[in-house]
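REVIEWER CHECKLIST
Item 1: Sequence provided? yes
Item 2: Single chain? yes
Item 3: Sequence as submitted:
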Amino acid sequence: WFNDCNDDIRRCCNNALDRLYESFGWQ
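Item 4: Structure as written out by the authors:
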């Protein structure tokens, strides 16, 4: 469904995932 989302939403989701990875130290 990401193809139907606009770039702002996708960017927001990506930022959330990046923070999650950082908080768990997976990066």
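Item 5: Key structural point noted by reviewer: Residues 3 and 26 are 26 Å apart (CA to CA).
Item 6: Recommendation: ____
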